[in-house]
Amino acid sequence: MTGTHKAVVLQKKGQIGFEDRPEPEISDSHYVKIHVKKTGICGSDIHYYTHGSIGSFVLEKPMILGHESSGVVVEVGEDVSLVKVGDRVAIEPGVPSRYSDETKAGHYNLCPHMAFAATPPYDGTLVKYYLAPEDFLVKLPDHVSFEEGACVEPLAVGVHANRLAETSFGKKVVVFGAGPVGLVTGAVASAFGASDVVYVDVVESKLERTKQFGATSTINSTKYKSEDELVTAIKSELDGEQPEIAIDCTGAEICIRTAIKVLKAGGSYVQVGMGKDDVNFPIGMVGGKELRILGSFRYYFNDYKIAVKLISEGKVNVKNMITHTFKFDEAIKAYDFNADHGSEVVKTIIDGPE
Length: 354
Hints:
Elements: E1 4-12, E2 15-22, E3 31-40, H1 43-51, E4 53-54, E5 57-58, E6 63-64, E7 68-76, E8 88-91, E9 94-95, H2 101-104, E10 115-116, E11 129-133, E12 137-139, H3 146-150, H4 152-165, E13 172-176, H5 180-191, E14 196-201, H6 204-209, E15 217-220, H7 227-237, E16 245-248, H8 253-262, E17 268-271, H9 283-288, E18 292-295, H10 303-312, E19 322-326, H11 331-340, E20 347-351
Parallel strand pairs: 13-14, 13-16, 14-15, 16-17, 17-18, 19-20
Antiparallel strand pairs: 1-2, 1-6, 3-7, 3-11, 3-20, 4-5, 7-8, 8-12, 9-10
C-alpha cells in the first residue's frame, strides 16, 4: 500500500500549507522516482501565490509548488537505461506530448500539451518523492552540489536565450534587467565567448552583483532622461560601437525600445522578460536594420545539459545566485519572505524533506 509524504501546497491564492499526499508509484517503465534534495523558488511561484494565475494558467485546485529541483534517484522503471539508483540529478520539469507538431518539429518547449511542474493543473516538486521520465534528468557530477543542481533550471533559461541569439566569441551583448534571469543570461553570454556584456538596470545593488556574472560594464538607466541618452550611454561603454545582441529580461517598454535602437544592423534581439501585453515598438528600425526578433520560452533539447556543463566546468558560478536558504518545514516562511522582500532576494533554496 502506498504511503504518504509531505507536500508544500498552494491551496488557493494567498494561502500555502503543508499537506499529506500519496507517495507516487512508477507506472511507466521509462520513469524514475527521485528523492528531491533542493528546490529553488521561482518568480512564477510567487506570482501564483500572490495572484492565483499567470496569463491563461489559472489555479483552480490546490497545487504542489516548486519546479527548480535536484535530487537522488531512488527507484527506476524496468526499461530505464539512462540513469540508475544513486545517481544525483537535475530535474527538467516540463514534459511535452510526443504527438504535438511542436514536439515533432524539435521545439518541445512550445508543446501546447506540456505538463510543466507547478503550472496549473500540474503538481510541482516540493515533496519528498517526484516522478520524472529518464530522458528529462541530467546527471550531476560529484563536485556539483544539489544547490547548484537546483539552479540548473534558471540557468537553462539563459542558455536557451543565448543559443537563440547565436551568442559566440567576440560578440557584444547588452542585457536589460539584472534579476535572476538577467544574471544567468549575461553569465552565459560571457561563457559563450562574448567580448562585452553590458547590464542595464535601475537598482545599483543589482548592478553591483553583475560583476560576479560576466559583466564588463554596467549602466544605471535612472541616470538618463530619454531612450536616446541611454542608447548613447550603451555605445559609450562599447567604445562607440553597437552591440550585435540585445536580450531583454525585463518586459519594460523603455528597455525594449532602447534595445532595438541600440542594436547594430543585422543584430539579434531576444525577448525573455514578460511585461505588458502591448508596447509601443520602433518597428521601422527592424526592417531598416534587418534585425532578428526572437521570443524565448523556457528551454529545449540540450539546454539543461549545457547548463550542467557550464556549472561543472566552472564557467558559470550559480552559487553566487543563492542569497537565502530554508529548511523544508520553513517552506511557508520562505515563500512569505520572497513575496515580502523581493528586492533582497536573488535565489532562495528550500531543502527537501529527509
